Structure formats: structure tokens, C-alpha cells
């Protein structure tokens, strides 16, 4: 799997895992803010065919290779958050701090089956810039990142997209998730879909030491929508255990 490294290799290890439909560039604001950490940004779509479990295994190997006994922090968004959950389940003692943003863990097999023919029919829309701008807006992608987002979307193959959607929509909480030994923060925006909010509750209830927060006035993509707020609450939670502003999830 391809990845980029930034920051100070002598300080705690911090991995940011991007969501579906975007790339490692979604974390540019975080890389800049956390330049005093050893930041690693993987590119999930460089792995083909895509698999949440295989991605998790490869990222765990990367952490073992790069962290060298330092504290390990993993932050995942959407599809990347699902991978982070899988990583915690595969190696419960490796990661010290995990932030899980907007992870879907309630499988929707019926919706997934219905989506397949629709995706194949509507796939040409991906190359339509007007459609792409609507999608970018929903993900809080700023104008200066649009061309990059559009080019990556336009070059994606339909079978790759279907595989990503399949993995995303059929994902559920792994049996060993509750064994994870590090600290876990689960967040979801209050403007996200109900299934995403239910997923956050399910995650909090399935791990005895996890904490969850419903973030106010946020949809799908807090790190892109409000990067300064996101950076601040990540830093405060890691340093002092301070929860971000919002409503506790129980």
C-alpha cells in the first residue's frame, strides 16, 4: 500500500486513514497542524482489489515497521474508520489512541444489492463535473481540492466502486473489537444519516472503555468541514482526555 510520511519521526506515531471517494489529501490540514508528530497517510485506493480486512492487516504491518515502540494514534474517517475498527480487532494491544469518525457498522445487505444495478447505470455521472461538484459539496471538499477529487473519481473503475460500496455497506462490528486495550473516541455528526448515528451508539455500547460524542451542526466529514475544531479536539483528547463539544453518546 502506498503512503506518505510527514513530521518528526522521533515523536509519537499518528496515522490518518481517509474515507471512500477521497484520498490522503483530505488530511492536509491535519498534517500541517500535527507536524510535531510522526504522521503517516496511506492511500487506500492503491490497493486493488479493495478489502477492509486486507487493508487493516497491511496498515498494522506498516505501524509495526514504522512506530518502533512509540505511542500509536490512529484516526479514521468513514471507510477509514471501519478499517481502524478492524485493526483494533486484529491487534487489540498495538494502538494506544483511536478516533473513529463516522463509521457505519450496521450492515445493509438489501440496500447494497439494490445499489449495484443503480451504480452501474449512473456510473457515467461520475465524469460529469456538475454532479461531481454536488458530491464534493456534500463531503465539505473545498474548491482548491475539487480538481484533485474530480480526477480521482473520474478515473475510478465501476467494479472498484462497487467493491468499496460492498465492503462499506456490509461491514459490522468484529467479534474481538471489545478486546481493544487503548483509548477509543467515537464521533458522528448530528446531521448525518440515522444509520450512522445508530452505528456510533452500537460502537460505544460494544466497548467498555470507549467514549462517544454527537457533534453539533456537522454532517459527514468533520475534519474537512471544520478542520480547526477537529484538530483542537483531537489534540485535547489525546493530551488530557477532554471530549469535544457535543452530546455524549450512550
UniProtKB/TrEMBL annotation:
Highest taxon, organism lineage: Bacteria
Residue ranges annotated for the AB hydrolase-1 domain, each copy included: 16-231
InterPro entries (UniProt xref): AB_hydrolase_1 (IPR000073), AB_hydrolase_fold (IPR029058), Meta-cleavage_hydrolase (IPR052370)
Residues spanning the membrane: none
Name of the protein described by the UniProt record: AB hydrolase-1 domain-containing protein
Source organism of this protein record: Lysinibacillus boronitolerans JCM 21713 = 10a = NBRC 103108
Amino acid at each position: 500500500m502506498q503512503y506518505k510520511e510527514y513530521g518528526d519521526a522521533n515523536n509519537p506515531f499518528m496515522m490518518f486513514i481517509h474515507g471512500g471517494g477521497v484520498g490522503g489529501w483530505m488530511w492536509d490540514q491535519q498534517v500541517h497542524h500535527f507536524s510535531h508528530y510522526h504522521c503517516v497517510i496511506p492511500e487506500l485506493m492503491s490497493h486493488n482489489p479493495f478489502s477492509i480486512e486486507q487493508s487493516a492487516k497491511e496498515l498494522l504491518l506498516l505501524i509495526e515497521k514504522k512506530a518502533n515502540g512509540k505511542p500509536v494514534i490512529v484516526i479514521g474517517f468513514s471507510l477509514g474508520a471501519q478499517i481502524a475498527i478492524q485493526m483494533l480487532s486484529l491487534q487489540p494491544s498495538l494502538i494506544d489512541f483511536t478516533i473513529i469518525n463516522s463509521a457505519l457498522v450496521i450492515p445493509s445487505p438489501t440496500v447494497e444489492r439494490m445499489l449495484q444495478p443503480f451504480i452501474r447505470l449512473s456510473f457515467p455521472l461520475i465524469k460529469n463535473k456538475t454532479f461531481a461538484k454536488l458530491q464534493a459539496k456534500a463531503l465539505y471538499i473545498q474548491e482548491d481540492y475539487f480538481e484533485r477529487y474530480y480526477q480521482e473519481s473520474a478515473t475510478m473503475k465501476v467494479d472498484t466502486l462497487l467493491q468499496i460500496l460492498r465492503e462499506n455497506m456490509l461491514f459490522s462490528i468484529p467479534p474481538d473489537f471489545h478486546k481493544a486495550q487503548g483509548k477509543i473516541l467515537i464521533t458522528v455528526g448530528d446531521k448525518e444519516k440515522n444509520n450512522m448515528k445508530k452505528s456510533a451508539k452500537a460502537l460505544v455500547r460494544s466497548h467498555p472503555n470507549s467514549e462517544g460524542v454527537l457533534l453539533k451542526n456537522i454532517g459527514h466529514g468533520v475534519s474537512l468541514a471544520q478542520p480547526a475544531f477537529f484538530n483542537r479536539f483531537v489534540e485535547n483528547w489525546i493530551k488530557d482526555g477532554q471530549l469535544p463539544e457535543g452530546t455524549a453518546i450512550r
